[in-house]
Amino acid sequence: MPFRLTPLLQKRLTRRAEAMIASSLAYFPELDGKTITVGYTRKHLGSATVVYRKGIISQLVIRLKVRKLSYQTIGHELTHLVQGLARGDRRAASSVQGENIPSGEKQCDIWTLARDKIFCDDAPTYIRLPRAMREHWPAYAEAVRDLCIAAIEKRKSHRLYIGWLEAEIHRLPPRSPEKQSTEQLELPFGHC
Ligand SMILES: [Zn+2]
Asked: What is the pLDDT of residues 40-92, one digit of tens each?
């Protein structure tokens, strides 16, 4: 098993939440072959810690609040571990394919959303979003994810890529949630 549950978490974890953690890890090849300790937190949505001993990573820990657990939160904390790997252990960093994920909370949100659609089930915490977008997140999730992918590309030539991203997000046309639910209703009728 690529992760180890602390006794405190084990007591609270549902089968569904455990399956969510396992499937999230499959999207993080950077963490392959490493054991992740998953613990419980009451205070935050989640947290992540990379523990070093003599300059070498000795433990990778994420803590999750089990209530209302989202792939977004799990992905965000796992992305922090990847950020930590890149910063600390040089040997670990060199084995990571492609470019390192820069440190920072907004960066963590951007790289998490960009990684896969599965991590777009809830709005990110740190990227600035208009309130309407936060309230009707599912209607905007795909468009925001596309912009995150574009921002990562933009970063290669544009130092202020986060500012660019947030401006682009605010420029997205408003979507009425009514329209969204009509679209969802149309499908089953179409098949009848
Ligand atoms: Zn964070």
From this structure: 998 878 999 998 888 888 899 999 998 889 999 999 999 999 999 877 655 55
CA dist 31 and 50 (Å) reads: 12
Distance 47 CA to ligand 1 centre (A): 6
What confidence score (pLDDT) does residue 104 get? 95
**Predicted confidence band at 98 (pLDDT cuts at 50, 70, 90)?**
low
Helix (H) or strand (E) run with residue 93 in it: helix 90-95
Q: What is the pTM of this model?
A: 0.85
Ligand 1 centroid distance, CA of 187 (Å): 37
Domain segments of the chain: what residues? 3-175
> Ion ligand 1 — residues with CB under 5 Å?
105
CA–CA separation, 142 vs 113, rounded Å? 9
Taking a C-beta distance cutoff of 8 angstroms, is the pair 137, 105 a contact? no
Alpha helical stretches, state H, the chain: 7-12, 15-25, 71-87, 90-95, 105-115, 131-135, 137-154, 161-171, 177-191
Percent of the chain exceeding pLDDT 90 equals 70
Q: How far is the CA of 39 from the centre of ligand 1 (A)?
A: 15
Output the CA 188–ligand 1 centroid distance in Å. 39
- C-alpha 64 – ligand 1 centre gap (Å): 11
